[in-house]
Design goal:
5 strands, 3-stranded parallel β-sheet, globular, 14% strand
């Protein structure tokens, strides 16, 4: 068995959780955490990919805004997007996204996912989500119900072959449409 240090794990595997840990520091410092050599344009790029750039531009101090202890000055969605920006700043072999889009709206979620997957070259992405729309970009989806595997396949094959997946997707599509009306 190969022994890997924590530093190596952090370099090869990035984890983004639903409730990110943020430091009482600036937005930029929170994004840079654990990364060396990132430029200002790198920071701007990940802010754009995470759909946080617009929010940051409205803050008086931009990316130099202090987020407060555990990000108290930010909304839940802003915290999640800041955490995504941090994970995207430096490449890794694996990125694990654990229900990280739960606090953003449907349209923002789609834009974030498009940006994330456009940036992932030869990386593995493991996405855990209750939202089916977040899974449409996945090569393979594993569907669980009550802790049991009930189906696996692509988004399109699951829509055809898994009634549970289809019903969940349909329900979520209707909810998204209701919110835009």
């Amino acid at each position: 068995m190969t022994n890997m240090s924590r530093k190596d794990y952090r370099r090869y595997i990035k984890t983004v959780t639903q409730t990110p840990y943020l430091f009482s520091a600036t937005i930029e410092e929170n994004i840079r955490f654990g990364s060396k050599g990132a430029t200002k344009s790198d920071i701007e790029a990940v802010l754009n990919l995470s759909q946080l750039a617009g929010d940051v531009s409205r803050f008086d101090k931009g990316d130099q805004t202090l987020v407060g202890e555990k990000g108290i000055m930010l909304s839940g969605g802003q915290k999640q997007r800041l955490s995504i920006a941090r994970a995207l700043l430096t490449p890794s072999d694996v990125i694990i996204m654990d229900d990280v889009l739960s606090a953003v709206d449907y349209e923002t979620e789609r834009k974030i996912l498009q940006g994330v997957f456009a940036r992932l070259y030869n990386q593995v992405a493991l996405v855990v989500s209750h939202r089916v729309s977040a899974l449409e970009y996945m090569d393979e989806i594993i569907v669980l119900s009550e802790g049991k595997l009930i189906a696996k396949g692509s988004h399109q094959s699951l829509l055809k072959d898994c009634p549970y997946y289809y019903e969940t997707w349909q329900l979520q599509q209707n909810e998204a449409e209701d919110k835009t009306c």
